[in-house]
Design brief:
single chain, 290 residues, mainly alpha, Alpha-Beta Plaits, two-stranded antiparallel sheet, binds iron/sulfur cluster
């Protein structure tokens, strides 16, 4: 019984605890309600998925749209909070702590030990946009696979750009210019992501460049919740899971070997679970090192 509801209970507890810590640190109760609200939303989605598994993707996408719209439209565009990678360095150079650092610590350094890169399939606004636009792209015959040197080279490039930009005109100091930076940076990321996905395959920006998943992926392989074979002997090697995976992960190989998905790219979107005709995989808790 407890295992069945482990995910919604865990999500609610983690978000509530983080909300309490942030509210205490910032001295503002609004942060508690913000995190508890997102936790309740995510938890309700997972609870509904348990009871109506046929609509798993409908619930996940709905949660993704609600949470990502809240973060991007509500907090970023309206509230002037920049969550992008560059802002972490703007904050560090300006000696301030804003939503960028809080989001980075929670979503990229803490959450991965519990629910891997789930932020990418349930909260990221760029990810939501890529998932939507990917449906209209032609099938790419040879999608580009992730290369570590490109991903970490891109991180280096972003640090360089942020450092030069903050030396000239740090948006973390000049609040008035922040909104323009937020809009500009997100437009550039979305444009790059939409264009490269047409030629390199689904979620190409996420797989190839995104600095966030490069970092959270390091810890995601120790996540408690992972895609887990529940009945590996039923797998008929149909390969539908591999074809459907937006991150090009070899799910079939892991299932055949009765191993959980430890790939640092897995975003826990559960698409592989949805398409499996034999119901031999699930998103389940387990020992972090397994
Ligand atoms: S990989 Fe990056 S851009 Fe893609 S969904 Fe995750 S955080 Fe967003
Ligand atoms: S392995 Fe499954 S859950 Fe992970 S990214 Fe691929 S389809 Fe999504
Ligand atoms: S979709 Fe299911 S049955 Fe088919 S290869 Fe993947 S795990 Fe095996």
């Amino acid at each position: 019984m407890l295992k069945k509801y482990a995910l919604p209970i865990t999500l609610l507890c983690v978000f509530t605890c983080v909300g309490l810590c942030v509210a205490y640190y910032r001295g503002q109760t609004k942060y508690f309600f913000m995190f508890a609200g997102m936790g309740s939303c995510a938890s309700t989605g997972e609870w509904l998925t348990i009871h109506f598994p046929k609509y798993k993707q409908v619930f996940r996408r709905t949660i993704h749209i609600i949470v990502s719209s809240f973060l991007f439209i509500g907090l970023s565009l309206y509230g002037n909070v920049n969550f992008e990678f560059s802002e972490i360095f703007f904050d560090l150079y300006a000696g301030v702590v804003t939503g960028a650092l809080i989001q980075f610590i929670f979503a990229r350094l803490i959450l991965p030990f519990i629910m891997g890169n789930a932020f990418c399939s349930r909260a990221c606004w760029n990810g939501a946009m890529f998932e939507y636009t990917d449906q209209f792209n032609p099938k790419v015959k040879k999608p580009k696979v992730r290369k570590e040197w490109i991903a970490f080279g891109y991180i280096g490039l972003l640090i360089l750009i942020s450092s030069v930009a903050s030396y000239i005109y740090n948006p973390a100091v000049f609040e008035g210019s922040k909104r323009y930076w937020i809009i500009g940076e997100n437009v550039v990321i979305m444009a790059i992501g939409i264009i490269v996905s047409r030629y390199w395959g689904t979620r190409a920006y996420c797989r190839t460049f995104c600095p966030f998943i490069s970092i959270s992926g390091i810890f995601a392989k120790y996540s408690i919740f992972k895609i887990t074979p529940t009945d590996y002997k039923s797998c008929n090697s149909c390969g539908l899971c591999n074809k459907a995976c937006p991150m090009l992960i070899d799910v079939r190989k892991a299932v055949r070997a009765n191993e959980r998905i430890k790939s640092k790219s897995c975003i826990l979107c559960e698409t592989c679970v949805t398409v499996c005709p034999k119901d031999c995989i699930n998103l389940s808790p387990g020992l972090p090192w397994t």
